[in-house]
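RECORD TYPE: protein structure
NAME: LtaA
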Amino acid sequence: MVTKTVDLRSDTVTKPTEAMRAAMATAEVDDDVLGADPTAARLESEVAKIMGKEAGLFVASGTMGNLISVLVHCDIRGSEVILGDNCHIHIYENGGISTIGGVHPRPVKNNDDGTMDIGLIEAAIRDPRGEIVYPTTRLICLENSHANTGGRCLSAEYTDKVGELAKKHGLKLHIDGARIFNASVALGVPVNRLVQAADSVSVCLSKGLGAPVGSVIVGSKSFISKARRLRKTLGGGMRQLGFICAAAFVALKENVAKLEGDHKKAKVLAEGLNQIKGLRVNVAAVETNIIFFDIVEGSKITAEKLYKKLEEHGVLVMLEGPLSKL
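PREDICTED:
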């Protein structure tokens, strides 16, 4: 009989802490669609300051944040965005940049460390002389940390090089920073330095930081002004938003310091799993809070059977598949 559950599915399954619930109960609120909610404004300003950008905007999810950011930068239908073939925007966001925004994705191979080769990015930029037949490249997207490669971290130096390439060709750079704080802690680099080259960043507060809901996108004042209108268009404008932002503010203030401990625990778990006969983990690739492990070919147990057996013992994990990286 299971008396306690160990939930290792994702950092998205956390429950609000007592401090978050207390902050939600006492939050000062007003109508945020009218731009009047003081708690939302305080959170947006704080995240923008931490990221080294001019302004911020709270959105319901990282997917909404990425979609809005892409649509602001690619405001002409038929624009093209260069992104990784294994990135979250391309794989797990329902094709929104295309179905809603009319933006064409130009995928470039993601390396095992989450990067894309600079040369391949540059080669993917459309020649303006072919605009009569090609989409127009307007944006490059990066993801840091990179979920599908196991939470690998992109260095500031790499991001700078991509930023320089973008500027050289008159393009914008967006970073999907769903777990940017994890990358910052793992690399020992201030988060504002990691996103210095970016024109916009989507920062999730409900993953590693444990808030119940929400992301903040940051960028220039003009970018956020356009983003605010798009948020309303997409049905993301909320009225008394402050009670949600209050919980996110607690997560931002209290939980960044806990990420290093999360990473250490993930490393210990990865090392232990790798010692179990029939399992294989690339321990060196475990840089943050995500672990992928494989069933060795020829093992007597399948992934599905192991999943069910762990569940019977109160240990919850995710099988790799369509819902495993959300």
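COMMENT: The chain has two domains: 18-254, 257-316.
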